[in-house]
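ok so i was messing around last nite and threw this chain in just to see what happens. nothing serious, just curious
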Amino acid sequence: MSAIFLKRPVLEGAIAFHRKARESCHFPLHRHEAMMEILFIAEGEADYWIDGKHYEARAGDMVIFRPLVWHEERSRIEAPFSFYYAGFHSLQVEGLSANHLLEDDEQPVFSVSSNAERIKHLFQELCDEVNEGWSEALTSSGLLLELLLLEVHRTKHHAPGKTARLSSQTAITKARRYIEERYHEPLTIKQIADHVYLSPSHLSHLFRDAYGESPIQFAIHQRIHAARRYLTTTEFSVEQIARLVGYESVTAFQNLFKKATGLAPGTFRKETLRPSESQ
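result:
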């Protein structure tokens, strides 16, 4: 258990809500005697009335309802609306009142866009775990809830630029792992830097010192490595492989592959498989 949790929260439920454009999502004025709720807005916008005050929330925002606080929720129907929800009780964070994740004077709606991807991922894992229907003895939902609350807490109170949260070695190791897992996506240096709480220029400098190339160059090499694997272990076409490793343009993929290996993808496949075919 993290040192910030003096008492572990007890999960009551978690769910993902998804509404199409023109579909209303409305929860009339209500409150909960003991349960605390947190919401992460993944898409769209909504209006919240919390303890008599009006708040607007949009994608990347977190909304927190404490026990006994009256609140009402209504999405804006012009566009699709999605949010993740978790309800729990018995939370005790060091330095805060029971069932508080914020100080009394802090706003209940705030942006976590600097760490939105991580928070969304944890919410999704939590919802998936709850939906699996495991017995309480086997579920990891309690640990996932703690990880989620910890991520929200430190994102709120230790925003990038305010506190150096990661050592340089940890940051570049984490950045490398992030690229290895997401090389097929349209990564940008800012996206990678945000993930490890560094400026793009600082990350590029550290990454180049450690690995001899920029993060984007490393991502391109991961794409080439994956493409070589696909070419030698599958019957996927060159066009299919190009898309799998992140290229919409087959021509761009072929040019980069030939520049990296000296061979066009089709030729590489033939040359690599030839010895085994002759045996």
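not much to say yet. The radius of gyration is 23 Å.
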